Amino acid sequence: MPGLFSLRVLPVVFLAWIVQGCDRAPTTGYADIVFKSGAVYTLDSQKPWAEAVAVKDGVITYVGDEAGVSAHINQETEVISIGEGMLMPGFHDAHMHPMAAGTTYLRCPLDGLSWPDEVLRRLSECEQPLEKGEWLRATGLESSILERQGPGMKLLDDVSAGHPALITGQHGFDAWVNSDAMKIAQAEATQDQLAGEAFVREPESGELTGVLRQKAFSIVWRQATQYSQRALLEGLRLASQYANSLGITSASESAAFPDHWKAYRQADQAGEMTLRVQAALRWEPEMGKDQLVAFEKMREQANGPLFKSNTIKLFIDGDSLFSDASVLDPYESDGGFGFSNYEEQLPGLVTFLDSAGFDLHMHAYGDRAVRNALDAIEIAIRTNPPRERRHQLAHIALVHADDLPRFEELGVTANIQPLWAWMSDERREECEGLGQARCDRLFQFRDLFDSGARVVAGSDWISESMSPLYNIQIALTRQPPGEGGPPWHPEQRVTLEEMLSAYTINAAWQAGQEDVSGSIEVGKAADLIVLDRNLFEVNPMQLKDVRVLRTFLEGEKVYSLHQ
Ligand SMILES: [Zn+2]
Fold first, then answer.
1. Chain-wide mean pLDDT for the chain?
2. Do residues 466 and 248 lie in contact, with contact meaning Cβ atoms separated by under 8 Å?
3. Does domain 316-515 have CATH number 3.10.50.40?
4. Where in the chain are the domains?
5. Separation of 150 CA from ligand 1 center, angstroms?
6. What residues flank ion ligand 1 with Cβ within 5 A?
7. Domain 1-90+518-563 is in which class?
């Protein structure tokens, strides 16, 4: 059994055993599941490829050649043939919002339903499980239905049975509401807002139509997303199922509110999680340092098998699309420097949170935000005693050349979102504001990898695609994901090996899970996926079409394409 008792794996085995208790120790005896007859990409740098893997009690007990695995098989063992496909570790999405997005987008999707019959039928079905006073929420309504005056409030009143209702259009910027929701919006809006275009009215009568845009939409949105614990748990369940179907077994929740944290913990304690979650607790700038006491308590209590939260999320700036990323040189569009949440207070805050032992997950989109965040981390490192820090900057769309080497020097992880790295209409709009020189430096993935930085990747889902393979395709091609077309700055393309590391072993380290997941090694948990093709034999423009056949978390099947 090559590998099982090698010196290299023993420490992993023992550490995992100490951390997790006896159930994590490798067991002798026959395997519950064996994967064989195909390609195994392990993400173990010592032994990247294998032919077969055995799993017992949720733990990997063998990684090696086909001949060696036969000793693990008896009549009870489920033998899965990998065939033309590929077995690899489950993906880690290093930046997403599973609970917020799951609750908002997956509870009642209307995509593709015909108007009005199918949509109204779905809405009345979605209304059924709601508790009194809960919002009826649905998304994906064909945008043309919300053009001009929309369908009117009465139609929605009839299917929402006394619940306030908010139905979001495909683009997510406008909505159809019923009378109850309209009353809530009216009560909170100013006179100016009420008279403005955000409240759409019949041109002749001046009556409200139930279509809300801009500010009116955000008032209702804020109210409608105050979910009950039951709704949050349901959102998590749906998001996890969706993630599992895309091969994701681990996620970094990148902005958890306290009620999200509570729902994660409840799901973990009840044994209902099908995703490992490392949650970054969302720091509210206006609430100040008093928040730390509650955060320390949350960190201590989030110690279940699949849920941890020893990270704090800081929003340093906005994003460039609306000229609010914080930039070193002014925008060409409006001459401003963008939006910045913290300026001179940042080093003090980062030093304070670092001294409490938290890792920081910072939203930093523009080059000024990136520099300020790196400066603050540098000061914290100089000020506080040494410890193993795992700070990270997410998005990092624009990084000044002087700051590129600092990720590696300071040990700060670069957390990238590949799905933005192609020339879409959004990018064109963004580039108009930034000017050509900075536009040419957006999303320098090649330079980040070459700088020696540890790179992790995530979807930022709520975004248009949670799929790791879709994101990986864009990082490899920088071409429009559908029809192809010219690549945008092809010199910044990266390799499949690099992106698979970013999406597995690197992200596992970032989440503090490197002893249990992120690669296929003896002693690690069997978080594994079977793909229908070998990724290394697929045209990069077709990576997004590769299907996940099965997903396992700790050896339990959490997804199967063919049930
Ligand atoms: Zn995000």
1. 91
2. yes
3. no
4. 1-90+518-563, 106-224, 228-310, 316-515
5. 31
6. 254, 460
7. mainly beta
